[in-house]
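Our consortium's second objective concerns turning raw sequence data into structural hypotheses that experimental partners can test. To show how far this objective has progressed, the report includes one record in full. It was chosen at random from the queue rather than selected for favorable results. The single chain below, 306 residues long, was entered without modification.
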Amino acid sequence: MKVAVIGSFPAETRKRIRKCFPADWQVEIGPEEMLPGDVEAVIPEHVRVDGAFLDRAPGLRMVQTGAGYDNVDLAECRRRGILVCTAAGVNAAAVAEHTMAMLLCWYKNLLPLDRSLRDGRALLDYTGGELAGKTVGVVGLGAIGSRVARYCAAFDMRVLGYSRHPGALPGVETADLDTLFRECDVVTLHLPLNGETRHLVGQAAFGKMKPGALLINTSRGGVVDETALVRALGSGTIGGACLDVFEEEPLPEDSPLRTLPNVILTPHTAGFPDGVKFHEKRYRFFARNIARAFAGETPENLRGGT
């Protein structure tokens, strides 16, 4: 079995990834340029899998992605008979916990307080608050969003939830997007990126939100209109943002988000809690699912190619 993990990884991470796969598998790890022509399964980490990519791997039989597959041309894979599977739900706990860490860091001012103390001064002029009593809007109530909703309810927050497939969740009040944007102190996004969700949160949404509202995005960067977000943050239309994902990744060095004081940024690592670009549970799932497919069994989270 020849598997390629496409992405940029430090040496120690590459060692840890290889240990998740059977010893007799040939696992190649590196940038897109190293894609072996005889690879049978590929794991693309934030790499576009389109016709040009597939032309370079004529023996490819399976594409195994993480939580999303917006980087994969499903129609082209289907035309070539290549299976496409996701790892939906595998990193739900990791991303939900990252979301809560961002939320707590924001309201408890952990980053500015740490910086000020290291600089030899005590920062006493700051604005924070308790989560208890705040209203949070969870946009997308799948595996990750539903966890975030439960965690927020445990902090005694009022939870409003929006989903394209609404269902009863304990402690969650169903709301439309307009109501959610207007009433919430925090809006957290947990949606896939597709034609319906691209730029779902833009100028119109920011205009409805509270002046002190916090936006959290640990889903996909394209769900938010980044230009409108920068404008809303700079003008005080909203209070702040915690972002793990961006419209262009890696985040450009000249992005205005890097200089705004009312943002917390992480480099698309919410799903990698075990180290630099590494989540053992995730890679163990990849190995099991690829093995299932090549044993003639139906793999989990099959999205296309049949």
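The partners drew two points from this record. The first strand starts at residue 2 and ends at 6. The radius of gyration is 21 Å. Both points have been shared with the crystallography group to help prioritize constructs.
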